Here is the input.
Amino acid sequence: MAIEKMSLVHIVGAIQSLDTTLVRCCNSGVFHVELPGKTAAGRGFAPIREENPYGDILQAVTDVMSELSLETKYYDYTSLSMKKEEVPVYLGRLKEELLGIKQHKTELKDRLTDHKQALAQVRHLDGLNIRFTDLINSQNSTTRFGKLPVDSYLKLDYFSNRSFFFFDFDHDEDYYWGFYLAANTEIEDIDQLFASLYFETIDISEYAHETPQLAIEALQTQIQIEEEAIRRCDGQVDAIREREAKTVDEIYAKAKMLHDTFSYRRYATSSGNRFYLEGFVPTRKVKEFTALFDDLDHVLCEQEQVRPEMKVEPPVQLRTNRFFKPFEMFITMYGLPGYYDFNPTSFVGFIYVLLFGMMFGDFGQGICVILFGLLIWKWKKMVLGQALMRCGIASMFFGLLYGSFFGIEGSFKPLFEAVGLGDIFPLDVLDSNTSTMLLIISLAIGVVIVVAAMLINIVTGLRKKDYGKALFSSNGIAGLLFYCGIVGAAALLVLFKVNVFNPVFILLVIVLPLVLIFFHEPLGEKVKNRRRKNAEKEKFSVVDASFEIFDVLLSYCTNTLSFLRVGGFVLSHAALMLVVMTFAHMAGSFGSPIVIVLGNAFVMALEGLIVGIQVLRLVYYETFSRFYESKGKPYHPVKINYSKEEEK
Amino acid sequence: MANSNAYNAVLAKARAMYGKHITPEQYQEMLRCHSVQEVAAFLKNQTHYGEMLSNVSEHNIHRGQLENLLRKAAFEQCGKLYHYLPLTRNDLFQVVIRQEEISELLRMVLLMRAGNAKSFILELPGYLIQRAEIDLMAVARATKFDELIYAVRDSEYAAILKRFAPSDEKGQINYIGCEHAFYEYFYRKTFAMINKNYKGQAKTQLLELVKVDIELKNLEHVFRCKRYLNASPEDIVRSLYPYYYKIHAEQLQEMVEAKDEHTLDDLFSKTKYHTKFEQTQLPFIEDYTKRYYYSLCKRYLHFSPYVSVVFYAYFHLNQVELNNIVNVIEGIRYGLPENEIKELLVM
Here is the structure.
């Protein structure tokens, strides 16, 4: 339950060993490279600015792979025997061959599109029961085939005195398909008229020799031929893929490795013929890492443990035990903690599992949650699935205590009787005494969680020597004293009728902490700047502090009461299932299993989602706001991203 | 009358439909097109006109055909929204149809004046032939003014047209007077419809939209006559619509009688519109009035809780968009520079 300790690693060496060094850094999988710090600049090292010489080859091989539909991923390239200068020639030849096939295919596709369009047009003329040739070859008249917009079709009536015939065979929402016929002597005028009506002529002379049916058949044959030719082109590409895939894959892997490694050169600095590189490696693995460079004569790798006074910002990698590991996603979603802060994953995980289990307590539904979690983890590789499995266990545990099995309340009674707890368990959550107790327990859990968050804040504040935060803030010792004092005194008064609100108590536990919280900023500054005489003083504003103290008092109250929802959800879950059971009872012996299954599915989907969100909200809002600062920088060791997914 | 607030879904629908309207960035992209066909392709692939243009081949579309289709699309969008309106709002859609009818009749008058009545049919929108309350095909067949009056004999338009019938065959038709009379009739009918069907805030808001529209038209007319036509006050007054809202009758009269442009500007600066108009320098009075009315309609579309008001505002916003597209198409067709076309757009 901590943050991985990091060591700062400095690598210095001869410039000719830089590429080898970078390759080893990438392969190690643990080196988080940093932009060179002040140390390097102070010693005359300057950044290396070079154009990546592998860019063109990588682009060419990626293009070829895309044409061949090959997947970009890691391939073992050790057996690649091609020389460096042979690669561009080989790729060029392959590209040219593929381009030829592609061009031919494009031409075929264009022709195919044309013919498909022509087919669609001629199909609209299918209702025409005459020979095209008779119409087209007429000596005294001219025929134009095409389509007329619906709007214009409505206007044809207006031109009834003009000498033309319009025959339509088909129409859709926008057009009437057909032809117009006019005497050769009039055709120019009629063409103009139809042009003004936006008639679109369709040239079907190439196909329209006989009847529309024959034209359709001719076009269909043509389309078949073209489709066959396109398939042949695809076959040729397949053959090339079969023949060249291994070599292309190997070239890609090597080019990608060289390209990405070279691109990491921007993190290196050089001076004369020396280079300098710095980064972070987890302290646990630093010996292993430095040993990687032992056999390189011109490379020196040194490491030092990171200390707060070094003024470096190490990356953050969370270390969490296996049970709570899936809950790291909630931390990264919010923002990583600072390197010197506290890893709250286990704390969050524990609260999440506990509260989820309490709010969604049902033995049978818990099993479903586990199965659902397992499914999305194995199938979709979602980490949330693992988190759900843990929540499901808690649901089962609390379901056992509530005696709830798929909404059937009072289950497991014999089990508890057998172990001698039959008088207490299973709990009847809808009983008024139990529900009051549940609400009180929810509040108590809330108080414990809020206190725990304050304690974490105090510990991290002291560790970072931020005394203002640890001692005087609303989440520091002053706040803790005030909160615990009020809650404790209220509990004593309500539960045991003991009134501790005497003047001394009020002065020490209420007034003093409030005064400290009110002045926490200047007090914190004073402690921090004790030894710094010339430190700048921040202006203290009474108005700001007054509003702040009001907000603080309100937040103690609301943050605690917020946990009442835990008890509320226990009750709502039981009530919803009661409704399902009532419906099942009404549905009779045949319908009741269906109602129970559907009702359970509905409640699980609805409540599962709401409870999941509510718990997350409680964690983020009621606890994180008390101690958490998301200022950490994620740990990203350098590596070669062979596939597109990795790059994302 | 049904409670207007019961039609929140219609409000959401209208706002969602307006949300699909062309954005300033899309206008900018459209301005980069080089031909009407490119504009058609852009409208088909990138805008809400895609559905209307889906069967159209953008490669050989004609400008007139494209404009007709866009007009039809704009009309159908209003029709779509109108279907959701309660039955008592039928009269509101009649306003849309009446406006289209008047615009077609005026086009016919103009064409008759130019002796080209036969070309009327070519630009006549097909959707209107079926939806109009007058027989537009009969209007199209008219070649003389008498025939036009006869074609609309069953409507109130006949009486208006009769007032402007030329005394003999060679007599000129007074188009400006005709236009004024038609719109006066249009506004009169609109006011009557609003007063009959609406009450409370819905009525107030609808009346504001109509009255501001009229007042802005009056303002445009006064400025245009004073600046470019040097018309006499009597002529100007004759062409004004006698409705007043934010500019009092006396104020308007003073503006009509202003000695010069400077005095007119001074008088205008005392009106309530002065602060509401855009503060940037624009070449024509219409640039200010159209932008102001556009923003007013937009405000009502977003914030009015009354379906009738939102429908009326949507109708105008639709018209603005249509005009903008037509301006882009015409601008590109006549090779106007990009920035000049952009100045014509109301956004």
